[in-house]
Amino acid sequence: MSVPPLGSLADTVNDTGVFCGVFVLRLKATPDDAARRSAALESANQGAALVPLQVLEASVEALRLAQSVARDGNPNSVSDAGVAGACALAAAEGASLNVRINLPGLTDHAIAQDYEARRQLALRHARELALEVAHAVDAVLDATARSG
Q: Helix 34-72 vs helix 9-25: angle between axes, to the nearest 10 degrees?
């Protein structure tokens, strides 16, 4: 399974660049270029919501990996899986907020509904997986404490 890099500087720059495009396009338009600006603004707004949605979805994949390590990895490294799970959940929660704040700017309601459905699903999965990671980590740590 290939997982895109999570939380890279490129994601941050991309998110910032897309959002800056939203502000530039909100400048007053003449009647001649209003339609062009409106389309460009919609595209920029979609990008401003899509980038954090992709980060949210990648966070779910990171949580799946943390879950696998917590369950099947080296017990001496289980705390690393717990930290990875906590960080991935934080990334998911933050990305979800960024999607939510950008959705009202979309005029294409079908895309907005699709992004919102994907956001809700991914966030629900992230929260469930984070709990599973925490429980798996606790189980290994408890077993280690009892045997030591």
A: 160
List, in sequence order, the alpha helices (H) in 26-108: 34-72, 78-102
Q: Is the Cβ–Cβ distance between 85 and 126 less than 8 Å?
A: no
* Average pLDDT taken over every residue of the chain: 88
Please report, for residues 21, 45, 51, 148, the alpha-carbon distance to residue 102 in angstroms, rounded to integers and kept in the order given.
13, 7, 10, 51
* Residue carrying the six token digits 């959002």: 19
The DSSP letter of residue 148 is: -
1 belongs to a structural domain: no
Residue 1 exposed, middle or buried by CB count within 10 Å (0-12, 13-18, 19+): exposed
pTM exceeds 0.85: no
* In the block, residue with structure tokens 């999965």: 125
Greater pLDDT, 35 or 120: 120
Cα distances (Å, whole numbers) of residue 61 to 31, 145, 148? 46, 30, 33
Instruction: Report yes or no: 126 and 92 within 8 Å, Cβ to Cβ.
Output: yes
Domain that includes residue 129, residue range:
49-147
**CA–CA gap between residue 136 and residue 91 (Å, rounded):** 20
Structure tokens belonging to residue 56: 């949210």
Is 24 among the domain residues? no
